[in-house]
Amino acid sequence: MNKALLAAALCGCVFAASAADAKEPATLSPVLVTATRTAITVDDALSSVSVITREDIERLQPVSLIDLLQGLPGVSFAQAGGLGQQSSLFLRGTNSSHTLLLIDGVRVGTVSAGIPAFDQLSLDQIERIEVVRGPRSSLYGADAIGGVIQIFTRHGRQDGRLTPSLRLGVGSRGYADGQFGLSGGDTHAWYNFSVGGQYTRGINACRVGAAEAFAGCFVDEPDRDAYRNRNALATAGYRWDNGTELAATWLRSAGHVDFDGAPYGNQNHNLQQVAGARLGFDPLASWRVTLGAGQSLDESRTYNDGVFLRYGNSRRNQASWQNDLSLAENQLLTLGVDWQQEHLSSDTGYLASSRDDTGGYAQYQGSFGRQEVQLSLRHDDNQQFGGHTTGAAAWGYAFDHGLKLSASWGSAFHAPTFNDLYYPFGIGNPDLKPETSRSAELGLAQKQAGWHWALNAYQTTIEQLIALDANYFPRNISHARIRGIEAQFGTELAGWQLESYLTLQRPLNRDGGANDGHLLPRRPERTVRLDLDRHFGAFGVGASLLAAGPRYDDLANLHRLGGYATADLRASYAFAPGWQLEARLANAFDRRYETVYYFNQPGRSWYLTVRYAPGS
Predict the structure, then answer these.
(1) Are 249 and 105 in contact (CB under 8 A)?
(2) Are the CB atoms for 216 and 260 separated by under 8 Å?
(3) pLDDT of 160
(4) Are 441 and 48 in contact (CB under 8 A)?
(5) Which of 273, 329, 438, 485 could form a disulfide with 297 if both were Cys (CB 3.0 to 4.6 A apart)?
(6) What confidence score (pLDDT) does residue 28 get?
(7) Which regions of 68-208 does DSSP assign to beta strands (E)?
(8) Residue 130 CA to chain centroid, in angstroms?
(9) What is the mean pLDDT of residues 1-22?
(10) How many CB atoms within 10 Å of residue 94?
(11) Could you tell me which residues come within 8 angstroms of residue 453 by beta carbon, excluding any fewer than 6 positions away?
(12) What band does 17 get if pLDDT is binned at 50, 70 and 90?
């Protein structure tokens, strides 16, 4: 089945390439800011990108952010159980700590492990998501080897009305969730306040018989692992007539999750909070200044059967100063400085607990007829690991009929996390070196009225890649190489909306040792996703198919995780103005599979939701 689906998706992209149409695109291209730190359209991007809108979220009816992102080009997840359990994202085959996550421009991710908590973020608070694939250290500094994902929170309507919103849902295994919000604004101001929650009795996270030395959960705990979350969001902003703009965001998510892993703990209470503010103004007609400041907090408490074991708190303070200078028509120079301070406090004890990083960057964007050029350079001074210089160059050429060719190169780096270096009990390795990478990419894309497609091929080499050996001891792999092809195809035919994504990749260990030529852990070589939707008046129907090839759970490639395919079905009914009833059947054929060795994934699940959103 996997081979057939992959072949079908690839044929779809090839068919799109051969069906050139002279018509111009009928819809405006979405705006993108993450790829260049400036506002451009997706059509002008010289990198592989995906933009997920609020409309997409409500159409697809995902239960979690992982549901929403899984299967996009280059995106795969490994999750240790069901909803709310620890998850890792692998973008273009790079490590889970190699993807930078931003929320309204604020860096998010624990200082200890360097991994964003994708499993703890509520979809109700999200307006738009931008996924940029490929290295972005030349603009954002450390952590952007695989790419950058930026989440933009929901803002208020600017039509002068106070607008409430409501969503209530139930589902399998005692699932329940809800959200209530108030938003509003006028031509100058906007605001949004929202609170929500989510609960499930869960599944048994780790299958019975997992008490294997140095694998699985170490113990057998045949019980349901529940998860609950409470979240809140407040955003506000004001725009003056002269273009000056002030905006602020505050987001909070508190989660409680049971997991399998005693005597090392089986309950975790965590808090994730993001606060940020941004001020933009124009000192001159050709000069835009943007000042930003923010803080992200991650707090964790671990218990074993209700008995407190340990805590870990991390704080990341950050500030930025960006200057966008219009040199001439279609010629933009961007100069900026970023500063961040990482701080970790824990009762387990680390040899070091804080460090600063200051980075300065410059970027040039220019258009010359059919050609586009983007050049960027950055230098970071890390308090612990010294200076690192990264750069990137991209070129694009626009042919007739919406066809575009692009080529790019970029370098990136990642500093070892505090867990990598100093985790207690001999698991940390203070001798680790920073990871560095180089990537090259070639892309071809086309957009016409009613359809679009894109094809990207890339190679990334990583020096001193950090990985866990068989004893969970972090060490540097001298050399790793990742080659991949990504394809996308979307069309609307006879009222049906189709989006398809294909990823083929080879993330290999090339250090010349015993594991040379082995696949890097938990990364499938191939994935495909198909989304199909249609509306019949007030009714909507849809289906999603996700297929992933096999992967391995360890560097030695001893523990093989089989490939799988799942199908989701969905329907909606707008039964009154502003009111909508939604139903979803996830994993409809009850496929059993694992993305982490010994850890279960949910079987067939149903969800029923009622939504109220006036004016939608």
Answers:
(1) no
(2) no
(3) 79
(4) yes
(5) 273
(6) 67
(7) 75-79, 87-91, 99-103, 106-108, 126-133, 147-153, 163-171, 175-185, 189-200
(8) 8
(9) 38
(10) 29
(11) 13, 16, 17, 445, 446, 487, 488, 489, 490
(12) very low
